[in-house]
Amino acid sequence: MSKEFFHGLRDGFPIGLGYLSVSFTFGIIAVKYGFSWWQALIISMLTVTSAGQFAGITVMQNPGHYLEMLISQCTINVRYSFMSISLSQKVNKRFRGIWRVLFGFMITDEIFAVACSRKEVSRSFFAGLCVLPYLGWSLGTLAGGLLGNVLPHPVMSALGLAIYGMFVAIVVPDLKRGKSISFVVVTALVLSCIFNYVPFLKDISAGISISICAIVAALLGALIYPQKDEEEEV
Amino acid sequence: MKTSVFFIYLAIMAGSTYLIRMIPFVAMRRKIENPYIKSFLSYIPYAVLTAMTLPACLYATDYVISAVIGLLAAIFFALKDKSLTVVAMAACIAVFLSETLIGLIA
User: Which residue among A1, A70, A80, A126 is least packed, with the fewest CB closer than 10 Å?
Assistant: First the structure.
């Protein structure tokens, strides 16, 4: 077991914790929708995506809407393609071929974010990083599906902020590194609020609006603050 | 729902989600040199995370006010460069404490 692997494990801990509460909710809702616990579990273990899964079980309520399933999954999940491309620039030389085919499965919003906060991503680190989130996601779904509400409600409510706390831990320290990141963050924030509160725009699904906000903010950032040399690389 | 229908849906869902992640990851073999594209890709994580956090996190707990307190706690510890776990735990504890307080008052 390498040191890198353990660093990954450690960094994956808060993700796993956050996933536990989100997937727990997924398990409860799936069973409420009429799925059995093993169906909820298998969905979580094979897709590992929050928004996509919640949308998926809604479509599954009616048989035969296969095209609708495909379209909704692609639009909600298209952001992963951008993350994959971004991450491909961060991984080291030995992280290629079959390793990318395997670990591509685990590129979630949170894992991507943590991986990108490193200067370089090795296979061992990424492998370690995936372990606890995958366990958290699977076990949380299982517990939610089998037990329903076992955790006291106030604890569930508090855990709801775990994932966001982690996002803050990734973004906020880098705000001190210069105007460019602050500009991107503020732009994304303003756009995101527009998509959440302005009539009509707020009806667009979260998966799509997050992609639009992110692409526009990063694009403006790149046009106004293109990085000139390695030192400025994020 | 019939089990066969479930598995067709599952295959579409899991297959499309996997391919959308894996194909770009495998296909991008070279380092991108263009400064604009490079910058765009390096800004993507910050933009994605911000758009996912706000305003969504304000509604992730029982009260908006407790979420705001949790968020401020997270920002405070993040500015001190604390680890991911510490910041996430601090946010959760702040929410828990403020909701306990709200429960006592209300």
Answer: A1
Chain B CA closest to residue A63 = B5
d(CA A151, CA A10): 24
Shortest distance between the Cα of A41 and any Cα of chain B, in A, equals: 12
Q: Is B68 exposed, middle or buried (0-12, 13-18, 19+ CB in 10 A)?
A: middle
The verdict on a CB contact (< 8 Å) between B16 and A10 is no
By C-alpha distance, the chain B residue nearest A234 is B42
Which of B39, B40, B91 is the closest to A165 by Cβ?
B91
Considering only CB atoms, B9 lies closest to which of A60, A109, A227, namely: A60
Cα torsion at A140, A141, A146, A150 (round to 10°)? 40
Average pLDDT, chain B: 91
Query: Is B9 within a domain?
Result: no
Nearest to A165 among B6, B28, B90 (CB): B90
Q: How far is B30 from chain A (nearest CA, A)?
A: 8
Q: What is the dihedral sign for C-alpha A126, A230, A175, A49?
A: negative
Structure tokens at B58: 């304000």
A234: pLDDT confidence band, cut at 50, 70 and 90? very low
Distance of alpha carbon B53 from the chain centroid: 6
* Residue B3 belongs to some domain of the structure: no
| Number of domains chain B contains | 1
Structure token digits, residue A23: 């997937």
* Torsional sign, CA B16, A33, B6, A70: negative
